[in-house]
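Narrative of activities, Objective 1.

The group set out to show that a structural description can be obtained from nothing but a protein's sequence at a throughput compatible with the screening campaign. Below is one input-output pair from the validation batch, recorded exactly as produced.
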Amino acid sequence: MNVARTLRHLTSGRLSVRRAFPAETLKAIEQAIRRSEAAHEGEIVFVVEAALDTLSLVGGQTARERALEVFAQRRIWDTEHNNGVLIYVLIADRAVEIVADRGIHQRAGDRAWLEICRQTEEAFRRGDYRGGSLAAIDAVARQLTTHFDSAAPGPNELPDEPIVR
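Output recorded for this entry:
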């Protein structure tokens, strides 16, 4: 077990999330998602978690594994065109993960998502959570627009409001 990681998770809480993602930033994220979804048929979900629960932490769960779990729990895969995308932020690990449903993933590929994650993590390291988050949403939206452009997007299948846990 990694002691430094354990300490980060035990000391990260709601206050850590509020510092990084104040109400104004969460509202800007919601607006960016809503705007982007007007230009494509995809769905973007933004989730922020302060830390893993104790059982997951002791079990060695990674940020990627947790993102896959959240993707399934939130049923992001359950969209008409299989083009839901999760942007997952785990504050304690300083990690960003993107999980894309098969409809968009097979078109965009791993490399696109990994690049967006790395750029977002770099912005977060500089303390720019708002700018990093908005840039990530824009980058994901570009992928969705490229592969699922629509003059008349379908119904909003998933919530636009960021989910804070």
